[in-house]
């Protein structure tokens, strides 16, 4: 499992590769809404949860999938990109887990992600 307590941060960019990687993990009625990729890791937003994909080892054959259900989000914060700080951030606090922080490239539409989370978590 990813060590979220030590401030794991991903610089994510929109990419559909990871949506295909998690299809076998989806339950009935669950659909991928959006997916993002960092260097080797990724994050997939579905209509039920957020799935964090952590590729491990030199060969990348070992993969950890962490499921973060929207129902466990207690607070979330969105920071948009600025003029000099081109990255945007999403920070979520999960009941029983603590803070999870994801960093996105500046062109990511965090307002859309915020609406997705609000729609399922509130």
Automatic annotation (TrEMBL):
Tree of life domain: Bacteria
Stretch forming the signal peptide: none
Gene3D superfamilies per record: Bacterial Pleckstrin homology domain (2.30.29.50)
Pfam families: bPH_1
SUPFAM superfamilies, per the entry: PH domain-like (SSF50729)
Domain Bacterial Pleckstrin homology: 11-120
Classification via PANTHER family: BHLH DOMAIN-CONTAINING PROTEIN, HYPOTHETICAL CYTOSOLIC PROTEIN
Name of the featured protein: PH domain-containing protein
Taxonomic source organism: Rhodovarius crocodyli
